[in-house]
Specification:
- This protein is α+β, with helices and mostly antiparallel strands.
- It has helices at about 5-10, 35-40, 60-80, 165-175, 180; strands at about 20-25, 25-30, 45-50, 50-55, 90, 100-105, 115-125, 130-140, 150, 155, 185-195, 200-210, 225-230, 245, 250-254.
- The model is unreliable at about 235-254 (pLDDT under 50).
Length: about 250
């Protein structure tokens, strides 16, 4: 699959499938028609109108909203409209940096078409005049893209953590990196996409970092989310691609 195919997939959705989701007068999400049908079972939580679906005005503070939507999310998961709940909450905001409207299990975020955020870290190694990248292979039991290639470190942005704290946490959990090293990561931009998936809409923003890694440091899977890491020279640099593969705690030169 070519890069353009991935870009197309990540930006493909049909607006007519969705209704706008409103909280306190702000348009914060998009809800698929199949989900809106089920939300009619919760008249104390949602109101339906020509502009879309609104969270009830009686739910005026983040804690009350979070508690009500926690029950809704559990029902959606029970009915198979979303995947199993993850036990990790995301902040719900209209835009990054704005006031927290509520907290919601990350598995339910796409069902309401809410914005989600995460961090992705490129592990860069300089050898002679060439650049190499540490690439992780996702575990085969992951819910999202099992067995596919990924950045050296990547993770969603949960409640209660700054971007830096989350970067340090994910770097330790996924790649066994010390905070002194991971803290050198440099922010290099952000990537956003809007992708229809099942009855959900993934509206993600990924904050991107580059971390220059010493040649002597090899990332090691810790929490089981990554099977192994491979050091690749991007093919654009040369057709002869040197790589180091770490698998089952054994270092192999290929």
């Amino acid at each position: 699959m070519a890069l353009i195919d991935h870009l197309t997939r990540c930006n493909r959705w049909t607006p007519g499938h969705f209704q706008t989701f409103w909280i306190d007068g702000a348009a914060v999400g998009r809800i698929h028609g199949e989900i809106t049908k089920r939300l009619r079972d919760f008249p104390a939580v949602f109101s339906h109108h020509e502009r879309g679906v609104s969270l009830s005005d009686r739910l005026s503070d983040p804690s009350a909203r979070s508690e009500s939507l926690r029950e809704v999310a559990a029902r959606l998961a029970q009915d198979g409209l979303i995947g199993p709940l993850r036990g990790e909450d995301y902040r719900v905001v209209a835009e990054w940096g704005e006031q927290n409207l509520l907290q919601l299990d990350r598995a339910a975020i796409p069902a309401f078409g809410l914005k989600a955020f995460g961090i992705h870290v490129n592990g860069v190694v300089r050898q002679s005049d060439a650049l190499f990248l540490w690439i992780g292979k996702r575990a085969r039991d992951k819910n999202v893209e099992p067995g596919k290639l990924d950045n050296m470190v990547a993770g969603g942005q949960p409640t209660g953590l700054s971007l830096r704290d989350n970067l340090l946490k994910e770097a330790a959990e996924e790649a066994g990196l010390a905070p002194e090293l991971a803290g050198r990561a440099v922010p290099v931009g952000a990537l956003t996409y809007c992708m229809e998936e099942g009855f959900g809409l993934k509206r993600d923003t990924l904050f991107l970092y580059d971390l220059e890694m010493p040649a002597t440091v090899i990332p090691v899977p810790v929490d089981g989310e990554v099977e192994h890491f491979t050091l690749w020279r991007p093919p654009i640099c040369s057709s002869k691609c040197a790589r180091v593969s770490l698998s089952n705690s054994m270092l192999r030169w290929c």
